[in-house]
């Protein structure tokens, strides 16, 4: 229901006037920072910040408030938006049946983007005990094999000028260097991005950069700094004018950057925090010595599933994810692909059922309240395919198992990157490498696509995958997406 009353501009002073949303039950002045977070986007605020807010509302973790940080123009835009509302965020959680909105406030500051001195000072502060990151799957400077790319120009630039870093990892190193010089224990570095073995990937990036200039310092980083693995999960769409309008009209809050998300959330973390941590287990977080199986379950079934529905949905001109799931061919493709090709090469976490998880994921994708867009799922395929699809292909090839359905995912991605959907509409650039991807997709020989070593590696040279990919690419080109999907479902 929409209320005609004028919305209140979000701020600390406005909190007592808000009637249609929950508000923090803690006094912001009672909070003290313990976490610096790089990459303050929607997912961070819907996930890590939401968990901390829940604890703070119960009188816990009030010395674990967040200070935001970043290095990109997006970070600067987010800082500007949140500064105007005292770092508060309206979080709108949506199931298919109900909507609940609340204002969360565990962030108490956001460092000026580009201010190296201020960032390093905060990292070196003894109160900073955790540094966390959500810098996207493409933000870790990985090469085709998944190893740290020490030759990346941004990494080389930071190695040449360690006192003027421009990457997240250069800033983290500068903070660790300052702490080491002051005789302070290092903070824990906690990755919250969807990357296999994300703690190890983050350690390799930080230590790898250090090793370019100081091998002894790199050895200290590897020996002394904790990089716990974690699995994170919550579907969180991008914010647009639709979400801002709904926040004003339905919830009475004028928020420059509200966050809409599903009501489901999951977080599994390796318990390695030498300087302590918030009691996140009291907010539903699972701590375990082995995150790996949980991580693979999520990356392959949820993230791989996103890729499977994204490109046929985009090519058929479907705007929202729940609308794609209402298309029987797409929903059927997701179900069969997951059951027949993904689950058999996915380990089962203790006490879990992969079939139950598959059904849960399908129901989450079909939630009409979320408003998640197909375009968001199609974003950045050049970084997501090698993490969410190619590893399952590799495992199936090693087992001598068919890869037809997974090859079809890649063929659909190639067709999407050609830049036009099946209605003839233009597909706007949706990948950092869009220009080169589009040129590659336009080549007459579809197998040229598999020559992207940074995406496919040895998988792109495997005959069973190449043969299946070529067949599906040709069928999509001649007969269209629906024919390809129905053909695979019948086969």
- Principal-axis shape equals globular
CATH superfamily of the largest domain: NAD(P)-binding Rossmann-like Domain
Largest sheet: 5 strands, parallel
Percentage of residues assigned to helices: 40-55%
Protein name: Mannitol 2-dehydrogenase
InterPro entries: 6-PGluconate_DH-like_C_sf, 6PGD_dom2, Mannitol_DH, Mannitol_DH/Oxidoreductase, Mannitol_DH_C, Mannitol_DH_CS, Mannitol_DH_N, NAD(P)-bd_dom_sf
GO molecular function: oxidoreductase activity, acting on the CH-OH group of donors, NAD or NADP as acceptor
Keywords: NAD, Oxidoreductase
Can you describe what's shown?
Keywords: NAD, Oxidoreductase. Residues 290-469 form the Mannitol dehydrogenase C-terminal domain. Residues 34-281 form the Mannitol dehydrogenase N-terminal domain. Pfam families: Mannitol_dh, Mannitol_dh_C. This is Mannitol 2-dehydrogenase. The protein is of the alpha/beta class and 491 residues long. The chain folds into two domains: 8-287, Rossmann fold (3-Layer(aba) Sandwich); 292-490, N-(1-d-carboxylethyl)-l-norvaline Dehydrogenase, domain 2, CATH 1.10.1040. 45% of the residues lie in helices and 11% in strands. The chain has 21 helices and 13 strands. The chain has a five-stranded parallel sheet, with helices on both faces. A hairpin with a 4-residue loop joins strand 4 and strand 5 (99-104). The radius of gyration is 23 Å and the shape is globular. The mean pLDDT is 96.
